[in-house]
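Box S1 | Example of a co-folding query
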Amino acid sequence: MTSLPEVLLSRAVLRCIETQAEAAYPQECCGLLVGIRNASSITISRAEASANVAGKTAGVDTCRRFEVDPRLRLALMRELEESGETIVGLYHSHPNHPARPSRHDRHSIWEPELLWLITAVEKGKAGVTTAHLPDLDDRDFHALKLRVVDGKD
Ligand SMILES: [Zn+2]
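Box S1 (continued) | Returned holo structure for zinc ion
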């Protein structure tokens, strides 16, 4: 197996995700991660919040499901053209569930190049955040090492 990249995340971006996860509770929050990926690491420079559009489908419980707004993705892709940065992943929260991929998450694997961040929220308070890389062959995720670094600001 090839070695997996390490994920670098600033404390400020992590706090941004945690704040959003707490505000959305008990619903799931979600969004896209922007940054730079190379062979050994994925550096996340910002988290772009999305509406959880899973709620637009009748009968879908957004306390258990999420779906990133495809319009956000298109807008970001356009904005990032020639910037050197790309969409490196997506994030969502797990209200009252541990920060590991659920069975539904494993069924939702579609793009092996996008990493997933999952933030657990318990009683409205953000807990652990973990990073995972999908594996299309296994229909499963590999846990990635997540390093929170102190940014300049
Ligand atoms: Zn999930």
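The chain has a mean pLDDT of 94. The helical segments are 11-24, 70-80, 103-107.
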